[in-house]
Design brief:
globular; about 50% helix; alpha/beta
Length: about 240
């Protein structure tokens, strides 16, 4: 079991339980998903301990599946993440259509997630603090990814920290409004993981435009990597 292995890892790494655990929301759905998606973000949104992000997300999934919006402290990041995940897994449509609570919930239900910094943070992150934690705790978050074995890692403003610490080459995809987007390939034995540079899902701005850009990036990855076409078969038009 993925979350059991992660719990053992956290216990060994931090026996005082001061970190905020990460993991997959629904192991059965995540394991059956194609592609398996993990969001790699910066830090938890709260400095409280004694809780796990996947447990909180499960409660939001139940709300969404019954037509209710996510609670505010989760909606800020995870509502948009749910739309992205659902679109990747089931096909890109308009943001207006996919923003419904049901689709957001089904997207979140299928994902895994982790943070570079495992202790509590706030709504805004200190760039240097995140960079230091990413370097110091690389063994921890690398092992988390190895346990979850994702096909696609969406780096929410964490791509440089991830690829620098894993020493992965950066492959250009496209440039959007002077921002360059890249991906990397990470070999886990016979398994290849796509590491994608993207925005944090809490990003403000035009969310329909953001979703369209994500679709373009996924299309470009498929053009460059033959194995990716099978992974993203459900997103094909």
């Amino acid at each position: 079991m993925i979350n059991e292995k992660l719990e053992k890892l956290y216990t060994e790494y931090c026996p005082d339980k001061m970190i905020i655990p990460c993991g997959v929301v629904d192991e059965e759905i995540y394991s059956a998903s194609k592609p398996r998606i993990v969001f790699l973000l910066k830090e938890p949104h709260s400095d409280e301990t004694g809780w796990s992000i996947p447990c909180g997300l499960r409660r939001q999934v139940q709300r969404g599946l019954t037509g209710h919006p996510f609670k505010r402290d989760y909606a800020y990041t995870w509502a948009q993440a749910g739309v992205w995940a659902y679109a990747i897994l089931n096909g890109f449509k308009s943001y207006h259509e996919l923003r419904k609570p049901l689709f957001r919930a089904k997207g979140i239900q299928a994902i895994g997630m982790t943070n570079l910094k495992k202790t509590g943070g706030s709504a805004t992150s200190d760039r240097e603090v995140i960079r230091e934690h990413a370097k110091r705790e690389v063994d921890l978050w690398r092992q988390e990814l190895e346990i979850m074995r994702p096909d696609l890692v969406i780096c929410g403003n964490t791509y440089r920290d991830v690829t620098d610490n894993l020493r992965l080459p950066k492959i250009w995809l496209l440039t959007h409004k002077k921002t360059h987007f890249f991906y990397s390939l990470w070999d886990l034995g016979a398994h290849k993981t796509i590491i994608l540079k993207f925005w944090h899902p809490a990003r403000r701005g035009n969310r329909a435009e953001t979703l369209k850009l994500l679709e373009q990036l996924i299309d470009k990855v498929q053009e460059k990597e033959l194995f990716a076409k099978a992974l993203f078969s459900h997103t094909l038009k």
